[in-house]
Amino acid sequence: MKLSILAMSTLLLAGTAQAGPYLVLEAGQARGDFDLNDFKAFNQSVIDAGGTASLDDDDTDTALSLGGGYRLNNHFAVELAYMDLGEYSARSDTQDTVDGFDRERTIEERLELSGLALQAIGRWPINNLALEGSAGLIRLDQDGSARAEGQTFDNSGTVVDSQSTRSSADDSETVPMFGVGVSYQFTDQLQAQVRYRRMMNIDSDLQDEYDLDLFTAGIGFHF
């Protein structure tokens, strides 16, 4: 019985990290499930009319997060972090012929994302490991831009018409964020963690509603 009690006490102490403030730095990858149906429909209309079309999209980028938190006890913490979530783009290039004139057109949209996130974290210690679950909100800044350019050529290849339009759409929105993760406590001061989080139901002036997935690895330093 004494051995069992000693083993349980050792297990609990091994998973105990001090309460108090900490800093956390994370890096990883963000991925958005953006709606490209308008691009695809436009390209298909060009193809159906005898032209050619291509679509390039970049829905993944590097993400960085820097923040601070406070561990209330070994099971609960709160964190506030600034997140740079990267840049995303979609581009359509088409070529077709209308009334004997060749046309080339490019349509492109870009979206840069960053935000300030506040989240509550629940922890379940298992020796030096801890399973994590998080829920919170992020104030997401969306800096969007769009451009459309086109040229028309005659039979000799001379440009007879050229058009270009550009627009921007910047907005901010507060959306929910949920996540899971696992951390490892090397010492009372140093922790490493791997996390997955999802930001949900994001509206954009350039995009229909979308979600954003965030995968990160990082370290935390406890004071």
From TrEMBL:
Q: Does the keyword Ribosomal protein apply?
A: no
Q: Which InterPro entries match?
A: Beta-barrel_OMP, OMP/PagP_B-barrel
Query: Matching Pfam families, A to Z?
Result: OMP_b-brl (PF13505)
Per UniProt, residues of the Outer membrane protein beta-barrel domain are 5-223
Which regions are flagged for Polar residues bias? 152-167
Q: Where is this region: Disordered?
A: 148-172
Please state what the protein is called: Outer membrane beta-barrel protein
- Where is the secretion signal located? 1-19
UniProt keyword terms in alphabetical order: Signal
